[in-house]
Amino acid sequence: MKSIFHALNRLKVFRGLTEQEFAWVLYDVGNSAFVLLSTAVIPIYAKSLMPADGNIVSAWGYAQTIASLVIALLMPLLGSIADVQGMKIKFFLGFFGTGVVTCCAMALPLTWLPFLVVYILATIGLNGSLTFYDSMLIDTTPNERMDKVSSHGYGWGYIGSTVPFIVCIALIFGGPALPFGWTTTGCTRASFIITAVWWVAFTIPLISSYRQEHYRATRDKLGTAVRGTFRELGGTFRKIVRNKPLWMFMLAFFFYIDAVNTVISMSTSYGAELGIDSTQLVVALLVTQFVAFPCAILYGRLAGRFGCKVMITAAVVAYMCIVFFAAFFLKSAVEFWILAILVGMFQGGIQALSRSHFAKIIPPEKSGEYFGLFDICGKGASFLGTMIVSVGSQLTGSANVGVGSLIVLFIVGFVLFRVSDQK
Q1: In the prediction, which pLDDT does 98 show?
Q2: What is the pTM of this model?
Q3: What is the largest CA-CA distance in the chain?
Q4: Residue 291's closest CA among 130, 410, 154?
Q5: What is the pLDDT of residue 12?
Q6: Which residues pair with residue 84 across a beta bridge?
Q7: Residue 93 — pLDDT band, cuts 50, 70, 90?
Q8: CA distance 411 to 356
Q9: What interhelical angle do 308-329 and 333-360 show, nearest 10?
Q10: What percent of the chain lies above the pLDDT cut of 70?
Q11: How far is CA 92 from the centre of its chain?
Q12: CB 97: neighbour CB atoms within 10 A?
């Protein structure tokens, strides 16, 4: 396995990355397989488990909200402890292991509610591991290379995740036709196992090569550091408040990335609610991954030319237009294809550059703590967008109402981001 990854690292497309950067990028390839399955297959499978009058948009939104709130509560505390020498990789392994195990557990024959509970645990495992993974960027590469490396992570994550996804889709749609007595449900459950195996395989290089270069306390001071966690967090909050560009960016990120994550996580359930065929939904989202791959890497290069802040601003404006299109013009599979392509053009760029921009403006020895707080504004704050869509859909009976309201989050995020950029 190790020799395979070394061979990949020597390919021309990866020669611009160091071995440690390459190993870091590969984790995006691994975990993105679960992210893609969560977007395209799991909501459809969950809907099939629900009664005929069940509302998958509402149920899915509440599941995402619960997972996000748990992350928001846990990550600041655990992130602070992770800044002790050698602790970051341990927390990463704990959440990564939880995600993989519960991903496999989704293959059990469950009814819709237990299935969603297991999915919530898998999502917590994924997002928790990503908090520590994001903070590892500071230990992996210098500031001047962060935009490039972060963009490569998202870009290769998008294209790499399509490999197990295509295998899973071929199994789900083609498996029942084979003379083995396989059912569509059984093949769908097998796809969860395939995804977990892929996730593990592409995490091995990071686990074996990562070294925590920046930390606030050495291993022998772990007990003291843990006891002083709340005091450390209080000091960090005070420093953030005094740093206007930093807290304004975090607040802006809270709004615009919340809306971005909502568009991504609820796109399939939204399309299913509009009556778009599941095959069309899956293929369109697969196209999104192929579009997002070059666009994410291109965004990293454009950031080097025009600046990270300019490119983030452009992506937020583009997402305003995307949400407006989804709310008022999305009626058929053709429009969903257009939506998928538009989202693919900007989702990797806005995520990658937001991550690298934040990493460049925080103290490296407290990256775990700061990224834990950052997750309150990012993955942990996703409850707002999903709650808007879920409640709006449930109260009005129209998913368009909830989706359309997301434009407010983008506008607020845009204004705050522009203010944070003022000297």
Answers
A1: 96
A2: 0.82
A3: 68
A4: 154
A5: 45
A6: 217
A7: very high
A8: 22
A9: 150
A10: 86
A11: 15
A12: 14
* pLDDT, average across residues 94-103: 96
* SS (HEC) of the chain: CHHHHHHHHCCHHHCCCCHHHHHHHHHHHHHHHHHHHHHHCHHHHHHHHCCCCCCHHHHHHHHHHHHHHHHHHHHHHHHHHHCECCHHHHHHHHHHHHHHHHHHHCCCCCCHHHHHHHHHHHHHHHHHHHHHHHHHHHHHCCHHHHHHHHHHHHHHHHHHHHHHHHHHHHHHHHHHHCCCCCCHHHHHHHHHHHHHHHHHHCCHHHHHHCCCCCCCECHHHHHHHHHCHHHHHHHHHHHHHHCHHHHHHHHHHHHHHHHHHHHHHHHHHHHHHCCCCHHHHHHHHHHHHHHHHHHHHHHHHHHHHHCHHHHHHHHHHHHHHHHHHHHHHCCCHHHHHHHHHHHHHHHHHHHHHHHHHHHHCCCHHHHHHHHHHHHHHCHHHCHHHHHHHHHHHHHHCCHHHHHHHHHHHHHHHHHHHHHHCCC
Question: Which residues, other chains included, contact 247 with Cβ-Cβ below 8 Å and sequence gap of 6+?
Answer: 240, 241
pLDDT at 9 exceeding the cut of 60:
no
**Structural tokens at position 39:** 């977007």
Rounded CA-CA distance 276/292 in Å is 22
Residue 116 or 278, more confident: 116
The tens digit of pLDDT for each residue in 220-246 reads 666 766 676 777 778 888 888 888 888
pLDDT score for 200: 96
What's the pLDDT at 280? 76
Give per-residue pLDDT as tens, 39-53: 778 888 888 887 777
Q: How far apart are CA 131 and CA 98, in angstroms?
A: 14
For the chain, the first-to-last Cα distance in angstroms comes to: 50
Separation between Cα atoms, residue 164 and residue 170, nearest integer Å: 10
